Amino acid sequence: PPSSQNNEQGSTLRDLLTTTAGKLRLGSTDAGIAFAPVYSTGTASGKSGRTMPNILDDIIASVVENKIPPNRAPKINVKSEIKEEPKDDKKSIQDDCSKRYSDIQYSWICDKHVLWLRDHKNTNNWKLFKECWKQGRPVLVSGMHKKMNFSLWKAESISLDFGNQQADILNCKDSIISNTNVKEFWDGFEDVSKRQKVKNGETALLKLKDWPSGEDFKTMMPARYEDLLKSLPLPEYCSPEGKLNLASHLPGFFVRPDLGPRLCSAYGECVAATKDHDIGTTNLHIEVSDVVNILVYVGIAKGNGVLSKSGVLKKLEEEDLDDLLRKRLKDSSELPGALWHIYAGKDADKIREFLQKVS
């Protein structure tokens, strides 16, 4: 191509599309779109005619025609590329990591599907995380609460500061939502006797959903917002200003997902007063973006019918837990706060098919 054309070629996708669109001849369309369509001539009946193409196809066609010299067309050897793909991603990543990241304390848990980073202070954690993130694998980082101001996250502290606020409270058992004073929720967080009762006299399993969220969180709870930001794991990816956090670098004309933070609080369900102990406080769902969940506080309930710590541990041991997690439960310094069921993204279609059969 002419040298002047080379100088105009953009270095980013946005520049490329802009410079390309600027050189296209204006085409007259019913929609009034100022792009030059690439028309196909001739029809099945033999009459000449023109069909309206996809605008993006026009731009790509122009890029291919005007930007890439014939002698620089890329050569693709599909056969050789397929051979380079690892046969067992899980095995290859583990073998590779054991050699390259010997300075990082980590384990593989949940049948080696989940990476457990055991030292939250290691500044090289992000390098190993990157290998799992590329494959959409969940990662657990323990010890993040040690960097936080514990007093800010206690139930009584939040109730004292924001008890007069109104919010939606969800009864996880029968999905009744009510707009009520959040003090009622927090007063019952660690005292079962102060919790709401449902019609049959059972203790309600309540959840304070996404209160507060996003900019409201930052405005309403500035001290807690700052405490949360300084405690984020893998800040290169998770911090709003992280150099590898794609969302923080999106141009202003993109509609960003709600990046939070959101405070999600729920009662524990290991209470004898609740007959059904298999109620989840979060429904099965798919997130629209990658999510960081930090367990900031675990309340220990008191009152009639509450399981002791040993009873809670016994209940958790009945679950299909990884051996390393079972060992962690027996550590007296550890306090279990949540039981998660996480499914691989590649299995989403199987789960949908199952749910459709059930319904």
TrEMBL record:
GO cellular component: chromatin; histone deacetylase complex
Sequence ranges of Basic and acidic residues compositional bias: 78-94
Gene3D superfamilies: Cupin
Domain (JmjC) ranges: 221-359
Localization, UniProt: Nucleus
MF terms (GO), sorted A to Z: chromatin DNA binding; histone H3K9 demethylase activity; metal ion binding; transcription coregulator activity
InterPro entries referenced in this protein's UniProt entry, alphabetically: JmjC_dom, LSDs-like
Annotated protein name in UniProt: JHD2C protein
Gene source species: Spizella passerina
This protein's encoding gene: Jmjd1c_1
